[in-house]
Amino acid sequence: MGVFVLLNIYISKRLIAKLDISDKLKRYLRIFLLINIVGILCYMLARYYVNTPGWLYFLFSVPIGILFLLFWSAVVYDIFRVILSFTPISPSRRKFFKKSLDFSSLAIASTLSLKAMYEAKFVKIEKVDVDIKNLKESYKIVQLSDLHIGGLIDREFVKDMVTRVNALAPDVVVITGDLIDVDILHAKETVGELANLKSKYGTYFIVGNHEYFQGIEKIIMSVKALGIRVLENENVYIGEVENGFNLAGVYDLIGYRTKTYMPDLNKALEGKKESPTILLAHQPKFIQEVYEGVDLMLSGHTHGGQLYPFKYLVALQQPYVSGLHKHNENLQIYVNKGTGFWGPPMRLAASAEITEIVIRPLKTTLN
Description:
Blueprint: H1 2-14, H2 23-46, H3 54-86, H4 91-119, E1 123-132, E2 139-144, H5 155-167, E3 172-176, H6 188-192, E4 203-206, H7 216-225, E5 229-230, E6 234-238, E7 245-249, H8 255-258, H9 265-268, E8 277-280, E9 296-299, H10 311-314, E10 323-326, E11 332-335, E12 352-361
Parallel strand pairs: 1-12, 2-3, 3-4, 4-5, 7-8, 8-9, 9-11
Antiparallel strand pairs: 2-12, 6-7, 10-11
Helix pairs in contact: 1-2, 1-3, 2-3, 3-4
C-alpha cells in the first residue's frame, strides 16, 4: 500500500501542482486521487471476501490501473515541462505550449484509462506456427495461461473461453499456470467448466506462482478431479508411436523460495522418448535452467506487461515478455500474454489471448 501512496504523492506534486488551472480544480483532482487510493484499499480487502458483488469488485479494482497510468502520464508531463522551461522561446509561446501540455496530459491519461478498460473485454485468438526439428507430424496445441479465476474472472468468462477453445478443434490443450486467485472451494463451479475442454489427447496443467498462495495441494487435487492431467516434474507422450512428441511440465520457480513443490527439470525429462520435447514452465526465466533436451518451451506469467509501458519493467525480470522467440539453435520459447488479467480489468497494448500453436515438422532444404 505504501507504494500506491508514494505514487499518489508524486502525481499530486509533479502533475496536479504544476497545472495552470484554478486552485478549486486542483482540489477536485486531489479529492479524486484520495477516492482512488481508498478504492485500492477496498480492492485489497475485497480479495479476501469472495462474495463481493461483481460490479463493486470492478469499481474497486479499476483505481489501480488508473493510478498506474496517471503516474506514467505525470512522469512524461514532468519531462516535457522541464524541457519546455529551458526552450528559448518567448514567454507568450511558452505559456501557450504549457497550457497545451497541461490539457493533453490529462486528456491522454483519461483516454488511455478508458481504452485499457475496453481492451480488457476481449480475448484474441493468436495463431502461431512453430517448426520443430525431427517432428514427424503436425499437431495443434491450444495454450491458456494466467486465467486468475476469482473476482471478475467468473464462470461465464470461463464458459465462453471453453467454447472458443473447443471450436479450434485442438489436439492438445495446455494451461500454463496461475489458474486461480481465490480458495478453490470458492471457485469450484467456475474451475469445473474446464472439464468441458475437448481435445484429441486431453488437457494438461502446470502450476504457476499464484497456486502456491491459494493452497497448491487442494488446487492440484481439484484439477485432477476434472480429468485434467497435472504435470508435476514429469512428462507424457502425445500422439501416435514414433510420430508424436514429449510433453513435460515443471513446478514454478517460486518453489525454490517456499522449499516445497520445487521445479526439477531432470526429473521432468526422465524416461522421455527419443522424440521432440515441449516443456511447460510458468515463468519464462526458467529457460535459464534449460540446456538440452527441450525443443520448445511454453510459458505465461508476464501478461505481456498488461498495461503499457509496464512491459519494460517486466523485461527487467523476465528474458521474454510475449510472443515467439528463438532462444538458441535448438530451443524456442513462446510466452502467452495471459487469457485473463490480474488486478485491474485493464489491458493496454497487451491483449489477452488464447494461443493456437501449430507445431510442424521443420522442412530441410537439400543442397
